Amino acid sequence: MYYGEETHDCNPRGMLRQMLILPLITSRVEQPVGTGFSTGTPFATNEDDISADFVEFFKRFEDLFGIQNYEIYVTGESYAGRYVPYIANAMLDQEDECYFNVSGILVCLIKRLPSFA
Predict the structure, then answer these.
(1) pLDDT for 29-62, tens place per residue?
(2) What Cα–Cα distance (Å) separates residue 90 from each residue in 26, 48, 63, 114?
(3) How many Å apart are CA 106 and CA 84, to the nearest integer?
(4) How many other C-beta atoms are found inside a 10 Å radius of the C-beta of residue 54?
(5) d(CA 76, CA 81)
(6) What is the distance between the alpha carbons of residues 53 and 59, in angstroms, rounded to a whole number?
(7) Which of these, 50, 70, 83, 116, could form a disulfide with 32 (CB 3.0-4.6 Å)?
(8) Is residue 1 situated within a structural domain?
(9) How far is C-alpha 3 from the chain's CA centre?
(10) DSSP H helical segments within 1-117, as ranges?
(11) What does residue 111 show for φ and ψ, rounded to 5 degrees?
(12) Distance of CA 14 to the CA centre of its chain
């Protein structure tokens, strides 16, 4: 080893080996269908319809990428605070910890500072 070179050993019990984080993918799921940049014909009439749609999507997502048996934390910011509890509840109602091992929820409100430009 030369001066300035670094070596790294992998920690077999490291945090990244213990959990899966999908912030870029899951933070881009827009609910309900037809809002934001999402495409499709809106059919949801209440939060139960929206959460059922999300549960179906999420199970297919887990199958597609082979990521079952992870702890699930349902998160959202701002108006998503209305959907997060319904989605988490719908996942728990499935009684399937292989796909929907809900371990917690997080809702945050981001307050933007006024622009002085």
Answers:
(1) 777 777 777 778 888 889 999 999 999 999 998 8
(2) 17, 8, 18, 37
(3) 8
(4) 22
(5) 6
(6) 10
(7) 50
(8) no
(9) 43
(10) 15-18, 23-26, 47-65, 84-93
(11) -95, 120
(12) 21
